[in-house]
Write a structure and sequence with these properties.
The protein is an alpha/beta fold. About 45% of the residues are buried. The protein has a seven-stranded mixed sheet, sandwiched between helices. It is globular, with a radius of gyration of 17 Å. Helix 1 packs across helix 11 and helix 5 packs parallel to helix 6. The protein has twelve helices and seven strands. The protein has one domain: Rossmann fold.
């Protein structure tokens, strides 16, 4: 099982859009079992998949030791995709977790049973757009960091900051093995010189990490969450759908060895009450 934190402390970069659409496209391919965990109190990944952010359904109680993580897992309408939704209760975790000595490692600890069971191939953590406890604990729990980066000038500043946070997590000893899995360029507008310049700079500085698949700026991608749908449902023949399907294929190609290693898993655990 590979845990991937999808993170960028800058908002509006396509982070949750990537979390929703990468997870659903992976599920559509039928080659991987995915658990999406919404770590953002705003619950945009939750509502973007058409779920209500109901109180008591999030990972909050598991983080503070009042429930098991497995009890929070819910199925989705996609056969190979499960979710742990978010709710506003999670905002309290920022305060309560910060007061605990193991606040950086708590999320990793509660994810260990899933890793032991090999219940999923990938756990995707949709992190909040901030540098608070929920994001840092996600990086401390993750095997890999996936950075969505919009093709704009401020995106480069955001990239420098998230790379610095990644290095801090490694240096602190909280998670010395976490690595940058990739950088996904989003909101690319081929009509502008700025988009092409940002693309060139990132490819020069991070040639191995940058995904070849580029996510275009798309009205359809912006509309889909308001209908509680992934782009492959809302506009399956659109450029955005094609791009995220290609991204899922490239993601799987990068993780082919891990999928082979996890080829004889135990069944996905059913959600149950704590």
């Amino acid at each position: 099982m590979t845990i991937v934190a999808i993170a960028n402390q800058k908002g509006g970069v396509g982070k949750t859009t990537t979390a929703i659409n990468l997870s659903t496209c992976l599920a559509e391919l039928g080659k991987a079992r995915v658990l999406l965990i919404d770590m953002d109190p705003q619950a945009n990944a939750t509502s973007g998949l058409g779920l209500d952010p109901e109180e008591g359904k999030s990972i909050y109680e598991a983080l503070i030791g009042e429930a098991t993580l497995i009890s929070k897992i819910q199925p989705t309408r996609f056969q190979n995709l499960s979710i742990i939704p978010a709710d506003m209760e999670m905002a309290g975790a920022e305060i309560e977790l910060a007061q605990k000595e193991n606040h950086l490692t708590r999320l990793r600890e509660i994810l260990e049973p899933l890793r032991a069971e090999k219940a999923y191939d990938f756990v995707l953590l949709d992190c909040p757009p901030s540098l608070g406890v929920l994001m840092t604990s996600s990086l401390a729990a993750a095997d890999q960091l996936l950075i969505p980066l919009q093709c704009e000038f401020f995106g480069l500043e955001g990239l420098a900051k998230i790379v610095h946070v990644h290095e801090q997590i490694r240096a602190s000893g909280a998670n010395p093995d976490v690595r940058i899995e990739g950088i996904v360029m989003t909101m690319f507008d081929q009509r502008t010189n700025l988009s092409r310049q940002v693309l060139t700079q990132v490819s020069e500085h991070f040639p191995e990490e940058m995904y070849q698949t580029i996510i275009p700026r798309s009205i359809r991608l912006g509309e889909a969450p308001s209908f509680g749908q992934a782009i492959i449902e809302y506009a399956p023949t659109s450029q955005g759908a094609a791009a995220y399907r290609a991204l899922a294929q490239e993601f799987l190609a990068r993780h082919r060895a891990a999928l082979v290693e996890n080829a004889t898993p135990k069944p996905v655990p059913a959600s149950r009450d704590a």
